[in-house]
Design brief:
By secondary structure, the protein is α/β, with parallel strands linked by helices. It is 40% helix and 20% strand. Strands 3-2-1-4-5-7-6 form a seven-stranded mixed β-sheet, sandwiched between helices.
Length: 235
C-alpha cells in the first residue's frame, strides 16, 4: 500500500552538493540580473533572465524529485519487479531505504545492502535507513557490503532491485561484476530490476543471453531521466 507523504526528504536529497551549486548559481545570476534591471533599466534585456531561471528550474526539479516524485516512483519500480508479500527481496545500494522500506511495507522479506556515501545522498547512512524503517513500522535486514561481491549464496532472492547505483561504480568490468553478482543471487524465475541514468544498454547486453525475458522502460519525470531494466531469470 502506498502511504507516501506529499513531500518529505526523509529518504534524502539526491546529489545534494550538485543541487546546492545549481540553486546557488541560479540565485546569484538572478541577483545580478535584478541589479542591472534596477540600476540600468534602459540596457536591461529580459532574455538575460533565461539563464538564472533555467538554473533555478533545474534545481527546483531536483528538489521536487527527491521530496515527492521518487516517493511515488518507487512503487512503479516494485510493480515492475513483481514484488509481493512473502517474497525475499534484495535492495542493492539501498541508501536510506527508498525501495527496501517500500518493499517491506508490501509484505516482502527484505535485505538492504549498501556502503553508504553522503556525496550521493544527503544524510546517507545505516542509522538513517534504520530510522526510516522504524518510522514506517517495518523490519528488514541491513547488510554493509559491496555490489561487486554480494555476501549471499546463489539463487537466494525472488527479486533483486537497484536504483541509481550501478552507474556510480567506475569501470565497465566492475559494473559487469556487480550485475553478474545480482543475477547470481537471483532465484530461477526471479526478476532483476536495475533503474539507472547511464549504462543501461550495457547491462542489457550483458544479461540478454541469459534472461528468459528482458525489457527496458524509460521515465522522463525522474531527475535525471532514467531507464529501468527488467530481466527475468529462466526457471
Amino acid at each position: 500500500m502506498n502511504r507516501s507523504p506529499s513531500f518529505s526528504l526523509r529518504y534524502g536529497l539526491d546529489a545534494p552538493y550538485v543541487v546546492a551549486c545549481i540553486l546557488a548559481v541560479g540565485t546569484l545570476l538572478l541577483g545580478v540580473a535584478a541589479y542591472f534591471w534596477v540600476s540600468a533599466p534602459a540596457y536591461f534585456n529580459p532574455w538575460e533572465l533565461l539563464w538564472p531561471l533555467s538554473f533555478l528550474l533545474v534545481g527546483g526539479w531536483m528538489l521536487l524529485y527527491s521530496g515527492c516524485i521518487k516517493l511515488r516512483h518507487r512503487y512503479t519500480l516494485l510493480r515492475l519487479a513483481d514484488v509481493r508479500a512473502g517474497d525475499k527481496v534484495l535492495d542493492v545500494g539501498t541508501g536510506l531505504g527508498l525501495l527496501a522500506v517500500a518493499a517491506a511495507m508490501l509484505g516482502a522479506d527484505v535485505v538492504a545492502l549498501d556502503m553508504w556515501s553522503v556525496w550521493d545522498l544527503s544524510g546517507n547512512g545505516r542509522a538513517g535507513l534504520e530510522r526510516n524503517a522504524r518510522e514506517e513500522g517495518v523490519q528488514l535486514r541491513v547488510v554493509e557490503g559491496d555490489a561487486r561481491s554480494l555476501p549471499f549464496p546463489d539463487s537466494t532472492f525472488d527479486a533483486v532491485v537497484s536504483n541509481f547505483v550501478v552507474h556510480n561504480i567506475r569501470g565497465r568490468e566492475d559494473r559487469k561484476r556487480a550485475v553478474a553478482e545480482m543475477w547470481r543471487a537471483l532465484r530461477p524465475g526471479g526478476i532483476l530490476l536495475i533503474s539507472d541514468i547511464h549504462h543501461v544498454g550495457e547491462y542489457a547486453q550483458q544479461l540478454r543471453p541469459y534472461a528468459e525475458s528482458l525489457c527496458i522502460w524509460r521515465y522522463f519525470h525522474t531527475f535525471p531521466f532514467s531507464q529501468v531494466l527488467v530481466a527475468r531469470k529462466p526457471q
